[in-house]
Amino acid sequence: MSSHLALRRTHTPAPLAGWSRFVMLDLHSLLPFVKTIVITFAVMILLGVTTAPNLQIAQTIVALGVIMAVPLNLFAADEQAGLELLYQILPIRKRTRVVGRYATVLLTTLAAVVVGTGSTLIEAAVTNVPSGGLLVGVGTLIAAALIVQAVQLPLYFALGYQRARLLNFALLAVAALLIILAIKQISPAGVAEIPQAVVLGGSVLVAVICYALSAWLSYSWYRRREF
Amino acid sequence: MSTELAIEGRGVVRDRGRFRLGPVDLTLPRGQVMGLVGPNGSGKTTLIKAILGMTALDAGTLSVLGTAPERAKGSVCAVLDAKFFVPGWSVAQAVRAIRPFYPNWDQNYAESLLARFTLDPDAKVKELSHGEGNKLALVLALAPLPELAVLDEPTSGLDPLTREEVMQVIRDYMARRDSSVLFSTHIPADLGGIADQLVAVRAGRVVYSGHMDALTEVFFAVRGTNDDLLPLRDRLIGARSTTTNFEAIVRAVDSGGLPSSVLVEEASIDDVVKALAVPVTEGIAR
Lengths: 227, 286
What we know:
Low-confidence stretches of chain A: 1-14
Radius of gyration of chain B: 20 Å
Oligomer: heterodimer
């Protein structure tokens, strides 16, 4: 049967840690959503290229939306496809699931940032807009995205997709508002004076602290949940 | 806790507000099949969840393959009543998603089962029929070559041919491996020729636990007219009556001295399971 070719591979157990196996499973469960995520991302890039530099704020909000869509889709699949039941049958502990889910979200966020940065560089080249301060922009976006995720992930772990999604959208609105206010407050001259290494280092530090606290909180709540 | 036992439960209690399971004692020796029967809401799923380490116990001890249920997960696989696959996955993607978690996964066996069930690896999960979904779940539960397979109503809603196909795969698996199976079903006929042990639960309590062969020695089927029902009510178990006749089962030790108008014969599994499903107020509480 030719269709069986899809499976014709001898399975050798890969020496993967539990959390990395869970990341693989997460990426598998994102497969049906890939088209939607890619289209959204493409629209965002197109918007940037065709309207730069006036829509920077809108672009940032869309970027955050895309980044937030990954956890949203993951937790939606957990409930709608019954994956939470699967996780309880599979030999993976709740702690491993939490670490794996954070790793998936971080991985997809970094992938989105890489694509977004690449598109910004292309945008700068196409529109002849100088790309100075790009590193600061990327660092700020990463910090904003990770802080938003650090808040939203424990909500999903504690409440599940259905109950947490409204809070999630409220969070997105608040984050967008804060970003708009922050961008309006920032003086371009002042930003230019901040060493880029400080911005990047600060972003990484903020991200690590927020993620660690968030993961701890997620596990504390998730381990008490019964399904 | 004995390592010779696939499942060993002592005084297992799980309290879920209005429903309480237990205390339940349960013993499944390795290499045997245990049939678990009982009406809806009797506690079968709660018991299965406890065995799979999905729910904590309020009292008692439960050992699976000689260890705590949550530690045995690598050697235990399950088919549950609810499905747990992403609808957009293909059959092949479902296999690829699950197999990294099981070091003993036998890909050749998985492929042979898919071929036997004529499941197209490219077919989307959402396009599978109910029976095909059950078959896929069974493939994913058996391909890891588990030491214990927990099958929660794997034949529910299947047509007779598909049901037999599924049952044959389970029988073949048992013949091929020295594994244990906990098999929950609403269909008593499924248990014939495969189950070594039978556990019947009702209203959260075990009402029968013993060897399948002993089942028909422990109980007799009785049939008669309703005129005989009233005087025998305390001896009969699970009496079900029409306007004129009744049928029930009776323990062998209680079968002496029944009136000649009552027909006493060897009980089938079907007789016993149906009788055990009748509400407690009608006799089984004895």
